[in-house]
């Protein structure tokens, strides 16, 4: 190979901003695949790892990045030049991750992906689209004619959840926190601000809630679900805690259900392939904000503050 050095982002200690280092292109051992990374996702999980706030953590200094997409450079099992997704096998958790121009991964952490897919989409779509699918179809069981509220409706999970619920024949109200995001709620849904959430604004109680925001937004949205309705809880960007008054909870008679993509991921593999094909074909929309390695601070800030519209990815090309 001709390239001698390669850039990577390193976290020296938990909570410190990642910084760029030049290092030799990593060398693989048998059982490993060397990949030229085109794009790597910057997700909430990655930020929790950078902050040292996750159950499994790498030993600093480490290269973060749990999901990426790239081209195989050397491997015993994956065809050279093929496009692969990188995830699992402790990537970015128990071993260096993918926020780098080159990465060596266990063979089984690489899997062929759709030829012609946009690498920034391919590496970041699954957590959003998979969680949205699970929330809308498997957990909230949204169907024709139902009235549904989706919070964080311009976010990655929320925007896909809106599209899937609209497609299922539901009447969808998309809730966003900031006025600038109203225009980013996908077509087919009514867009309103979280501050305006009320039964009046919704035109009456709804059948289901898909909440991707948590905290005070969940507290405001949950009472708007009708008795016998369902609430699928996906995320907690706005707050991890939520207080329940048991008397109100029992009276409300709403099923509050967790969406856990990790436990459902295996069963959603085929759905994932279909959703990536739909995004690639333009039948489903998932916005991805892209940043070079030298703009990691901006990428992190956009995601942390909730200002990002859709997914955030590092692009290395
Ligand atoms: N349960 C699972 O298996 C699973 C799978 C994937 C993702 N998740 C979680 O689901 C949540 C949504 O994921 P996502 O990829 O859709 O994230 P996202 O694109 O960042 O969307 C989250 C939305 O939360 C809102 N928000 C309100 N206050 C915020 C704050 N203080 N900081 C950040 N965002 C804030 C923002 O919308 P407004 O500006 O409209 O308020 C933002 O668009 C995350 O918590 C993620 O960890 C869970």
Distance linking N and C termini: 17 Å
CATH fold label of the largest domain: Quinone Oxidoreductase, Chain A, domain 1
Strand element count: 15
Largest sheet: 7 strands, mixed
Helix content: 25-40%
**What is the general shape?**
elongated
Number of helices: 10
What share of residues are in beta strands?
25-35%
Radius of gyration: 20 Å
CATH superfamily of the largest domain: Medium-chain alcohol dehydrogenases, catalytic domain
Order of helices and strands: EEEHEEEEHHEHEEHEHEHEHHEHE
Supply the CATH class of the largest domain: Alpha Beta
The mean pLDDT is 96
**In terms of per-residue confidence, which ranges show pLDDT below 50 for 5 or more consecutive residues?**
none
Bound ions, cofactors and other small molecules, one mention each = NADP nicotinamide-adenine-dinucleotide phosphate
Number of domains: 2
State the secondary-structure class.
alpha/beta
The CATH architecture name of the largest domain reads Alpha-Beta Complex
Overall description:
This protein folds into two domains: 5-124 and 286-315, Quinone Oxidoreductase, Chain A, domain 1, CATH 3.90.180.10; 126-263, Rossmann fold, CATH 3.40.50. It has 317 residues and is of the alpha/beta class. The strands form three sheets. Strands 3, 4, 5, 6, 7, 14 and 15 form a seven-stranded mixed sheet that branches. It has a six-stranded parallel sheet with strand order 10-9-8-11-12-13, with helices on both faces. Helix content is 26%, strand content 27%. The protein starts with a strand and ends with a strand. The mean pLDDT is 96. The protein contains ten helices and 15 strands. It binds NADP nicotinamide-adenine-dinucleotide phosphate.
